[in-house]
Amino acid sequence: MQPPHHLGLEHLSTAVLVLDRNFRVRYANPAAENLFEFSSKSVAGTPVNQVFVETGGLVAATESAFASGASYTEHEMTLATAANTYQVSLTVSPLFDVEPLLLLEFYQIDKHLKIAREERMQLQQQYNRELLRNLAHEIKNPLGGIRGAAQLLEHELPKPALREYTQVIIKEADRLQSLMDRLLAPSRMTKLAPVNVHEVLERVRSLILAEHWAGLAIRRDYDTSLPELMADHEQLIQIVLNIVRNAVQAMQGQGEITLRTRIARHVTLVKKSHRMALELKIIDNGPGIPEAIREQIFYPLVTSKEDGTGLGLTIAQTYVAHHGGSIDCDSLSGRTCFTVLLPYNHLNLH
Question: So what's the architecture of 4-108 in CATH?
Fold first, then answer.
């Protein structure tokens, strides 16, 4: 497929499609082929709304530019092919000098969004750590005093039946003490050793199934060729356990969870390039995360469960950060997927 009028589009680093007046693809330059992973021949003559399975505002943008004869820009748009989803900005320019054509220029913004999201998460993690540590230290001392006073009062009460009330105070104080210990737990030093990630996943799977969830299935989808990971064994268990338990509770023990491991190559994590990383996906078919808290699920004390503490995912994120990795979540009704990336060559832990 030759570019119309020899516009030199084949040399541009920007992904470009040229559409005819019927919004069929007339030309795709090499940058578009690389970005969207199709060949120019395979999409030639295809309506643009069939090239992508999800078009976002693409059709509206092309129709608007064609009708007005003026350029149209959409700064953030989601496009999807059968293989991948893309976050792009789009500029549509009419080319009416010889024949009615539309020039579509796509700028991929996935990487910029990912970097910005990672930076926000790093700042949030620092804030979370300080908040939790300060909160825990502020609560622990008076909590010990409350418990001690309740014990002394119990010995002074004339009627044994009244001790029921002091026992409530003591038990609630113990529960809060346990919560404070969990708040402070992520601050301990990370201890590296070779870890078989599948042994960790099997341990978590056994723990969860031992809780007698009759309607729960946990599927394995392992790449058994994965090398051992230099990681903190206990922290790795806690990462997976917190995510899986969160999923089980959201599904009320009725549904399916898939544990999937793969190799991810040439990834950038926390602004560092890594030749190879572990990609762990924890996928459930539950109701999905409520939209109201979807952007805050890693914040401390954020939960949709009445009896939840909102700490499980915060602790998981903190431990992932200790390993120089990343954790992300995509959630829709019927499918929630947590993706954990941990580098194989990350040794400089703080």
Answer: 2-Layer Sandwich (3.30)
